[in-house]
Amino acid sequence: MMSDKQTRCPKCTTIYKVTLTQLTIAQGMVCCPKCSINFNALTHLVQPAVSSETRGSAIKKSTLPTHIGERKKIGSEPSANILDIFERKIENSNIDLLTYLNNLNYFHNESTLSLPALHLSGGNALKEAPHPRSTRFYYLLWGSINVLLAMVLILQVLWFNPKIINDSPFFNLLFKQVCTVLTCEKLEDYYSQVKIDKVKVNRAGKGQTVFSGVIVNEYENSLQIPSIKLSLNKHNAEILNTVILPEQYLTNDLYKVRRIPTHSPFKFKFTVPVDCKDFDDYHLEIIRP
After folding, report:
1. In angstroms, rounded to a whole number, what is the distance separating the alpha carbons of residues 94 and 20?
2. Residue 263 in contact with residue 208, Cβ under 8 Å?
3. Is residue 124 part of a domain?
4. 29, 149, 196, 251: which has the fewest Cβ within 10 Å?
5. What's the rounded Cα separation, in Å, for the pair 245 and 78?
6. Where would you find the membrane-spanning parts of this chain (predicted)?
7. What is the per-residue pLDDT across 244-273, written as a single tens digit (0 to 9) for each?
């Protein structure tokens, strides 16, 4: 019969006859009664011999186990002729149309409703570049760079906005500390060019002395107002050593000024609680902020 197929056991090479019903219901999986292994009959189909006598001697008449009975034959002769198309084979193939249609899930691993996979390139065409292995030194280096850039940005904001420094004690202290670390020697050089001139010492009353004069900035740029250190001596013995802050020596018309312009006299005046008779020598020194 055209509906019968021949398959070969891959272990014992025994050839069996199977029907389309067996292949369809069991999805091609059969069991060899001789060696008791399960195999796919569709992948081990063999061509029947030309001679009927040779085929009869080579094929054993054993029946493979299945879960359903034989398919009923088509009743009418015209209908059978029409359905013969399902049992025809194409060239160089052992599988007919009916077997193929009933085993689509076997021949195609992907679902028939799924989208086709797009293979845009070969396996090695788009290899990702290996990422450099991060180390502790890598994170430390970039962390230091980020901190340095942040400090430079903050210093620029404070440098061009002195009002922020004057209004905020925290930023004022931060600016002084950073400038001390970065430009300590330069600041000393800058303020060494600030001079005290035209000093006058007058008695203001009992037990009080008034110091007045001008501060001259000979540096090419303006500088933040410095403090003044006062030392009073008598017979080469120091009797007073104090620092006068800008807000203590600035006159009323200069009270809000925070920087000394270049080559412009800057008046100062302050009082100390020491009588003129109590000292015979004094020394005034500029102290940078």
Report:
1. 12
2. no
3. no
4. 149
5. 122
6. 137-160
7. 888 888 877 776 778 888 888 888 888 888
CB 109 within 8 A of CB 97: no
Q: What is the pTM of this model?
A: 0.38
Instruction: Report the distance separating Cα 267 and Cα 269, nearest Å.
Output: 7
Indicate the SS3 state at residue 206. Answer: coil
The sign of the dihedral angle between the CA atoms of 179, 182, 186, 188 is: positive
Distance between CA atoms of 170 and 68, rounded to whole angstroms? 92
Name the pLDDT band for 61 (thresholds 50, 70, 90).
very low
Distance (Å, whole) CA 287 – CA 179: 15
Residues 37 and 89 occupy one common structural domain = yes
- The amino acid sitting at 130 is P
Q: Which of 65, 88, 107 is the last residue of a domain?
A: 107
* Number of other residues whose CB lies within 10 A of the CB of residue 66: 17
Same domain, 16 and 99: yes
Q: Residue 26: in which H helix or E strand, if any?
A: none
How far is residue 48's CA from residue 94's CA, in Å, rounded to a whole number? Answer: 10
d(CA 72, CA 65): 18
Full domain range(s) for residue 142: 136-190
Q: In terms of Cα–Cα distance, which of 245, 249, 256 is closest to 271? A: 249
Tell me the HSE value of 16 on the side-chain side, using a 13 A CA sphere. Answer: 26
Q: Which helix (H) or strand (E) holds 23?
A: helix 20-25
Unique residue bearing structure tokens 């009323």: 252
Q: How many helices (H) and strands (E) does the chain have?
A: 9, 12
Backbone angles phi, psi at 161, to 5 degrees: -135, 75
Judgement on whether residues 209 and 183 belong to the same structural domain of the protein: no
Whether residue 177 is contained in a domain is answered as: yes
Rounded percentage of the chain residues whose pLDDT exceeds 90: 3
Q: How many domains does the structure of the chain reveal?
A: 3
At residue 102, what is the residue type? N
For 147, residues 6+ apart whose C-beta sits below 8 A from its C-beta are none
